[in-house]
C-alpha cells in the first residue's frame, strides 16, 4: 500500500467516531477473560499467581497494521487481602510503537462468600516512538514526510473498582489519568472510562456461562458492547467438582464489530484462547483481526481456593 494511502487510513481510523476506541488506548478483544487490561482492581483474584499473555494482529492484509503484545503477571496474598501485578504492553503500528509498562496494586476491602469489593491502582510510563527512517515513500523528496526519529515518554496511571457476588460482577475504571482534561493527541493516549456488568453461572453440571455489557467512553465518543460465553464441563465424580473443557463466546459492539472467541483448557490451570474480530463498516470488512492468548494459574500450597476445588473458582472470576 502506498504511503499516503496508509497514512490516510491510520488518521481516519484514529479520528472517526464510527470506530471503536482503538490505538489511543490498548484494545484487546479478549478483555472479557482478563479485565485487568483496563481495570487494575481485577487482579484481586483469590490466592494464586496469575500469568497472562496475548498477541493481537489487527487490519490483516494492510502493510504495517497494528501488532499488540500484552504480558501480565499478578499474585494475590490472602494474609493482607492485597494483590500485586506487573504488565507490559507493546503496540506497533506502521512506523510508530508504544511501550507501556505498569505496576499494579489492588486491595480487597471485603472478602466473604456473599460479596467482595476491590480497588486497584496502576502506575508506570507511556512511551511512544516514531521512527521516520522506516518510511518507504513513492516520492523520496516529498516535503510532507518527516524522516526524523522522535520519542515521547510520559507518566501513566489507571484506577478502578470492582464488586463481586456469587453471580454478578460490576466494575468501573479510568485509564491514562494524566491525560484527563487534556486535548486529543495522536502521539499520546487519551483518558478512557470503562463501566461493565456481568452475570455468571457456575453451578450447572455440564456447562458454565456468563453474559455481560460494557461501556467505553472517551470525550464525546461512547462504544457499547454485549458479550456471552459458555464453557463446557466434564463431570469427574471427584470432590473437586467437574472440569472445564472448552469455551465458546461472542461479542458485538455498537461500532459495528463482532468477535468470536474459542478457548480450550489443556490442563486444569492452563488455557489457550483464540479470538476473531470482524468489522461490518463499509470498506473495512476485509481487514480482520486475530488474537491468541495464554492463561496460567499457579496455586499456592495454602490456597483456600485450591482446597475448595474448582467448583467455586472458575476461569472468568
Explain this structure to me?
This protein is mainly β and 317 residues long. It has 2 helices and 14 strands, in the order H-E-E-E-E-E-E-E-E-E-E-E-E-E-E-H. It has a single domain, classed as monomeric porin ompg (Porin, Beta Barrel), CATH 2.40.160.40. The protein has helices at 3-15, 304-308, and strands at residues 48-57, 67-77, 82-93, 96-111, 116-131, 149-164, 168-175, 192-201, 207-218, 221-234, 243-253, 257-267, 270-279, 289-299. 6% of the residues lie in helices and 53% in strands. It has a 14-stranded antiparallel beta barrel.
Q: Largest beta sheet: what is the strand line-up?
A: 1-2-3-4-5-6-7-8-9-10-11-12-13-14
CATH superfamily: monomeric porin ompg
Low-confidence stretches: 1-24, 302-317
| CATH fold-level label | Porin
Q: Quick check: average pLDDT?
A: 80
What string gives the helices and strands in order? HEEEEEEEEEEEEEEH
Summed up:
With 317 residues, the chain is mainly β. The chain has a single domain (3-312), classed as monomeric porin ompg (Porin). The chain contains two helices and 14 strands.
Amino acid at each position: 500500500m502506498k504511503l499516503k494511502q496508509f497514512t490516510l487510513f491510520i488518521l481516519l481510523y484514529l479520528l472517526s467516531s464510527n470506530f471503536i476506541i482503538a490505538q489511543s488506548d490498548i484494545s484487546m478483544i479478549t478483555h472479557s477473560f482478563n479485565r485487568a487490561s483496563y481495570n487494575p482492581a481485577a487482579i484481586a483474584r483469590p490466592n494464586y499467581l496469575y500469568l497472562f499473555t496475548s498477541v493481537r494482529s489487527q487490519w490483516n492484509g494492510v502493510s504495517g497494521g497494528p501488532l499488540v503484545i500484552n504480558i501480565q503477571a499478578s499474585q494475590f496474598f490472602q494474609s493482607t487481602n492485597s494483590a500485586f501485578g506487573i504488565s507490559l504492553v507493546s503496540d506497533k503500528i506502521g512506523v510508530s510503537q508504544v511501550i507501556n509498562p505498569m505496576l499494579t496494586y489492588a486491595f480487597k476491602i471485603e472478602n466473604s462468600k456473599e460479596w467482595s469489593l476491590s480497588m486497584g491502582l496502576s502506575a508506570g510510563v507511556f512511551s511512544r516512538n516514531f521512527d521516520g527512517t522506516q518510511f518507504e515513500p513513492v516520492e523520496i523528496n516529498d516535503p510532507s514526510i518527516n524522516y526524523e526519529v522522535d520519542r515521547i515518554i510520559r507518566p501513566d496511571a489507571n484506577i478502578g473498582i470492582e464488586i463481586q457476588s456469587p453471580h454478578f460482577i460490576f466494575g468501573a475504571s479510568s485509564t491514562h489519568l494524566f491525560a484527563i482534561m487534556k486535548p486529543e493527541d495522536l502521539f499520546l493516549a487519551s483518558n478512557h472510562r470503562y463501566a461493565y456488568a456481568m452475570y455468571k453461572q457456575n453451578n450447572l453440571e455440564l456447562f458454565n456461562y456468563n453474559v455481560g455489557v460494557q461501556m467505553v467512553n472517551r470525550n464525546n465518543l461512547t462504544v457499547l458492547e454485549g458479550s456471552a460465553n459458555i464453557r463446557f464441563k466434564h463431570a469427574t465424580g471427584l470432590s473437586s467438582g467437574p472440569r472445564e473443557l472448552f469455551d465458546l463466546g461472542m461479542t458485538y459492539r455498537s461500532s459495528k464489530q463482532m468477535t468470536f472467541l474459542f478457548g480450550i483448557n489443556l490442563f486444569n490451570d492452563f488455557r489457550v484462547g483464540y479470538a476473531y474480530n470482524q468489522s461490518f463498516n463499509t470498506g473495512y470488512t476485509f481487514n480482520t483481526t486475530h488474537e491468541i492468548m495464554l492463561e496460567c494459574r499457579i496455586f499456592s500450597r495454602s490456597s483456600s481456593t485450591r482446597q475448595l476445588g474448582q467448583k467455586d473458582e472458575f476461569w472468568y472470576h
